[in-house]
Structures are given as C-alpha cells and as structure tokens.
Amino acid sequence: MLKRCIIAENRKLHASPIWVIFFVLPLISAGYGTFNYLQNLEILTERWYSLWTQHTLFYSMLFFPAMVSAYAAYLWRLEHLGHNWNLIMAAPVRPFALFAAKLLVVVKLMCFTQCFVFVLYVACGRLFAGFSDWPPMSIVFYLVRGIFGGLAVAAVQLLLAMLIRSFAVPIFLGLVGGIAGMLIGSKGYALLWPYCLMQQGMNANHSTDVLAGNVLPFLLACAGWLAVVLLTAKVLLEKTDVKA
Amino acid sequence: MGKALHAELQKARRRHDLLICLAVPVVVYLWAGAAVPTGADELANAYSALLFALPVLNAILLPIVMALIASRLWDMEVKGSTTKLLYTLQSRRSLFAGKALLGTGEVLLMVTLEMAVSILLGRVQGYTEAFPAGPFVYTGICTLAVDVMLFFSELLLMLIFDNPLPALCVGIVGALIGLFSAFMPPLVSYFVPWGYFVPLSCYEVSYWDQATHTVTYGLRPYNWGLLAFTVVLAAVLFAAAWRMMRDKEV
Amino acid sequence: MQTVIETKALCKQYGPHTAVDHVELHVPQGCVYGFIGPNGAGKSTTMKMLLGLIHPTAGRVRLLGQELTEKSRLPLLRQTGSLIESPAGYLHLTAQENLEIVADLKGVPHKDIGRVLDIVHLTQDRNRRVGQYSLGMKQRLGIAMALLGSPKLLILDEPTNGLDPAGIQEMRALIRNMPAATGATVLISSHLLGEMEQMVEQVGIIDHGHILFEGPLTELQRHSRGNVTLRLLDPAKAAPILRANGLTAHSDSCVVTLPPLQDALLADLVQKLAACGAGVVELTPHTKTLEEIFLSLTSEEAD
C-alpha cells in the first residue's frame, strides 16, 4: 500500500521543477563556503573541519528548513488545489500511508541532497582549498546524522503544509522555525526543538563534535519528534473529515 | 482607486495577513534581542550594534516574507479563478493599483513596526548610547526601499507563473545569496538585490579586539547612490509587473 | 427591435489556429439567445471578446448600441452580468462577502445581495465559506454575481454546468423568464442542444469558429421536418403502390419509413394504401431533434 503511494507521489513530481532548488542551494552554499574559507585562512586552521563549517553553517541552520518547507508545501499543494483531496481520500489506501509516502519522498530527495553536499565539499576541498588528502570519515557520519535530524524537520513541515492551505505560510514558518532553532540551540536546548536537530547532526558550527558521546540522546530526540508528528498526522487524517 | 483598495481590503478578511506583518517584527525583536548587551562598553555602543545587525536579519528574513506577501495577494485570484470576473468589473489598472497599494501598505506597516521594535529593544535592555536619529531614519528608509523593490519582483513572478512556487523559491535562493553577498566584497553585493540591505547599511565594524572579543561599531557614509538605484529598480519592477497584468490573457 | 449584441467579422487567431472566424452575431433586445456549439467550437472565445476579456484579431463588437472600446468597456460592463467558464469566487470568504466585493465594484447597493441570493437559493448558505461549496453551489454563486444590479444584458457560458437536475430545471425557468421579469437580454451558451430548445427564442450555431445558422428557433425547427413512419397490417400489398410513387420503402417488417413529404402528397398516398387493403394502422410524423439538425448543418458545411 505504502509502495503504491510512493509511486504515485513520485509520478506527481515528474516534470516538476521543484528539485532545482535542491540543486541550487547546496551549490551556492558550497561556493560561498569555499570563498569564505580561503578568505579567512588565518582563523580557520582546522582544514577539512573548517571547510565543513563554512559549507554547512547557514545551509543547515536556515536554508535547509526553508527548502524542505518549500518541498513539503509543494507536495500538499497538489492535493489542496481543486478537488484532489476528495480524490486521494477516496483512493483505496489508508490516509496515513499518503502522509508517510510524502515523507519518504522528501527523505529520498534529502538523501540525494546530502550526497550532493558531500561531493561539492570534497571537490571544493581538493580543487580550491588545495587539500591533497581525503576528508575524515567523521564527515560522512555527520551527513548521515544530518538526515536523521532533517527527518524531524521534514515531518513537521509536512504536517504544517497539510493543515495550512496556503503555499507560502508554511515556508515562512519553516524559516521562523530555523531562526528559533538558532536561538534555542545557542542556549543549549537543541534537542528540544526539531529545527535544531539537523544543524546539530551536521555539526555545522563546531570543529569538535558537539554530539561527542551524546549520539544516543540525539537519536532519541529525532525519533521522539518524528513519532509525535506522525502520530498527530495519523490522528488528524483518520479522525477528522475530508476538507475539500 | 479608493474602490479598488476597498475591494482588496475586503478580500484580505480572514486571510490573517496582518498577523504576518506582526510576526516579522516579533521575530526581529526576539532574534536581535537574543544577544543582550552586557557591560558599560557594549551598552554604550548598543544602538550601533543593533543597526549593524538589523540589515543582516532583514537579508535573511525579508526576501522570503516579500515572496509570501506577494504570493498571497495574487494566489487567491488564481485559486478562485476570479480574474475573468474582476476584469469585467474593474479596469486592470485599478486592480493592479489595489494590489500595489495594499502590498506597499503592508510593507510600510512591517517596516514601521520593525523600527519601533528596535526602539523598544533599546528601552527594555537599557542602552546607554545616545539614540542615533539620523542613521535610524536612514535605515528605515533603506529597508522600505529594498522591501518594496523585492515585493514588486515577487509580484511580477506571481503574475508570470500564476503559481507561488517560483516566487517562493526565488525568495529562498535570494535570501541565501543575499546573505552570502553581505560577507563578500562590496562590489559583489551590488549584483545581488536581495542582499541590498547590507551594502546600504550605515554601520561598520570599526574596531575588533581579538583578545577580549569586543567589537566596536562606527558610522560609515550613507550610500545614496545605491539607495537611488534601489528606487529605480523598484520602479522598473513596478512597471514590469503592471505591464504583465495589463497584457495578461485570461 | 433594437440589437443588443452585434458583431461584425469578429476573428480571433491563436498562432496558426483560428478559434473564431468572421463571426456575425445579432442578438435582439429582450430575448433569450442560445449560442450553441460543441466543445472547442469557439463559444467561450467569442463570449470573452464580447466582454473585452481578450482582444479580437479583427472585427468589431457593439453592445447595447455602443461600440465596445477600451474606453466604453467598463461603463458597458456595469450594465452586463457575466459568467465565463469556471465559476469565480474567493475560497476563503463567504458567499455574502464575495457578493459584497462584486456589488461594491459594480456600484450596486448591498441590499440587492439578499435578492440574488434568494433567486439562486443560497440564502441558507450565505455565511459559509465558498471553499466548502459544492461545484453546483459555486455555479449558483457565479450566477448570483452575474445577476447583481439587474443588468440589461446577461452573458452566461454554460451556466447549468455542475447543477443537479432540479437545479437545471430552476435555472431554465429563471433564464426563460428573465426578459419578462427584468427586461434583460440573455446570451447563453451550451453544447447541449436539447436543453436549449426549452428556453431560447433565438439561436446561433457555431462550429470550428464559423456561424452555421442564426435566426429564430422556429425557423430552425422548420428545417427540421423529419421522416414519416407508417405501420401497416400488410406491407406486401403496399410495396407496388410505394414503388409507383417513386418511394423506396423498407418493408421487411410492419413499419415503413418514408422520407419527408408534402401534406397533400401524404394524404393522397394514405388513401391509396387504404384502398388496396394494406391496412394503415398508424402514421407518425417525426421532427428532427436539434442534434440531427446540427449534424446536418455541420455536414453541409463539410461538403
């Protein structure tokens, strides 16, 4: 059932230009990060790690949430327009499978983006920063953790986009969530706010691992947020009426 | 004109756009106020620090907020397929005038509240620096000019595509490169309109004590040239959006 | 009688495709005019040009005795109500609020809103958001918008789309009575010919952008004299007589189908058939349905 939903979601996205933004944002982020790294060599002395923070700082704090919001809002806009709600709710699948399918489609794209971020990072390091060795393995580990953190953001944004019929408002809320995440994260309560998790997982603003020895609470926080959102979505989709 | 604006206001009912105009200053207040200045040195330089930080926050927030406002003004016509009806009731000129007036009004309200919020922040956190009235007004005018310019660029995109997706994506990407251009050489930032808040800023870091991590901010000359260019750009985008609406086939 | 809508050689070209080709419409005052054609024939395009929503490639439009120009357009449209293609409405607002917006733009007092809501039976639902409306309700709201301010001319593009059978009946009655009740002239388009027969006096038939026929419905129906069927007790006896009159009859059963005949000829034939003992039991003259007329008009066009 879920598989059919995913296939349907993928088909809806055919010929949609939305993936362009997933390509453009990391590219800009990498370009700027490399530039900034080269400009500040006297302060940024940790080579691959320094380059990593420059590449991912703004991206994971602010623009990743906004990008995922745009994607989530787009997936739901297809249903909000016209009478598609009736169509999909009448389809012989559990409404929750629909939500899960959308989440998986977002996660799939997110994984591609993470790979792209890594490729750009390595390329910039070798070509422009002049590193002759390869980046430490921990970076790959950060990227995987970033996906777990991003999962919570994607789920929250999908929920918002499902509830808010406007396309733009959830995106604005995603940005506000990211800004709030910066503030909450700086106060040390990062695990209590989903929008902090991506940035924590990516280890975006530290050269030493913020989560060293703390990975288990981080994963628990990701799973906890995910569970809360999925449960809310399930209850809303199955207990409330179709809104067409 | 009055009639068109009245109609736009009627349509704005239950859309809670006012809430967005209020949310932005609140976010700015919380964000700018998060770093409470401590110590006599910082308090004596606090307004300068705030007016230095404000353009950066604007560069992150406002390209997306302008896309939001513009998309909400036009998306309801797309969703309700009301353009055909409207064009039989009012001239395209008056429809455009109504949208432009309401959008500009919302932007004006937002900027006014944002500036009010920075005064409030000064009072609440007890800044000791003398209130810099001139730079303050200049910052407000610059923010307004860039906002209006971005608003009409996003409205133009909405009119071209009849879909909020491109406008919002341009808003997000614009915010990102706008923010990055702030840390690039000034020449680069001149090519990135989304980030004009920063090169228009009248404050700069005048002294950075690396040992104590204290920063002193100082004034720099007003950038009248870029402000004039922003206004011209806004006028061009206004004209382009108007032409788009005038020549739109329904 | 004054002509309320008049077009002269109206054309609309979309690239190489001619959507509307030298259309001449003449809609007399105080009638219901049916604008009939299959989907994609150019009905909506013509109606949009009548409202100045799109610009003609060539040709002219006169509404209410005045040339339609950029300048005269809005004053003319204030006296016009229209519903084009899908019904319009702000989904986040109620029907009442939607009508207030239209009333203000038209310069019509708000007290007229109650009247039009009554006419389309939306009074009960006036304070519900249009986003929650069914398609039929949105369609009725669209008609209410068109009726605001008692316009002299109503231009309705397939107004019965999405209505239930009861709604369609009501709409027909409403439109049929419009000229008598308010003095309005109605131009209504449809691809359903049968439904038009019951409410229009004048018709214009369009296909592939060309007008095939324009005139009173009665004249169209005069073209519609159809076949005659005879039911006979003994068709074998009738065959020689029919042959003698130059008629080919299909006499494999008791029912004989004859082509359209003059009344005198028919009377004569029946008398002869009766005399030879063929036993005429039943004689049924058929009128062509509008569908058949339409098909014959379009096939003539093709020839």
From TrEMBL, chain A:
The question of whether Transmembrane helix is a record keyword is answered with: yes
Entry-linked CDD domains: ABC-2_lan_permease-like
Annotated TM spans: 20-38, 58-76, 96-122, 142-164, 171-195, 215-237
Going by the UniProt record, its keywords in alphabetical order are:
Membrane, Transmembrane, Transmembrane helix
Q: What is this protein called?
A: ABC-2 type transport system permease protein
Per the UniProt entry, what species is this protein from, by scientific name?
A: Gemmiger formicilis
Automatic annotation (TrEMBL), chain B:
Q: Does the keyword Membrane apply?
A: yes
Which is one Pfam family of this protein? Answer: ABC2_membrane_4
Domain of life where this protein originates = Bacteria
What sections of the protein cross the membrane?
18-40, 46-69, 100-124, 136-161, 168-191, 222-242
List UniProt keywords, sorted A-Z: Membrane, Transmembrane, Transmembrane helix
The protein in question is named ABC-2 type transport system permease protein
UniProtKB/TrEMBL annotation, chain C:
Which protein, by its recorded name, is this? ABC-2 type transport system ATP-binding protein
Similarity field: Belongs to the ABC transporter superfamily.
Keywords attached to this entry: ATP-binding, Nucleotide-binding, Transport
Q: Report the Pfam families cross-referenced here.
A: ABC_tran
Is Disulfide bond a UniProt keyword of this protein? Answer: no
Taxonomic placement: Bacteria, Bacillati, Bacillota, Clostridia, Eubacteriales
Start and end of every ABC transporter domain?
Answer: 5-233
Q: InterPro entries, per this entry?
A: AAA+_ATPase (IPR003593), ABC_transporter-like_ATP-bd (IPR003439), ABC_transporter-like_CS (IPR017871), P-loop_NTPase (IPR027417)
**Can you name one GO molecular function term for this protein?**
ATP hydrolysis activity
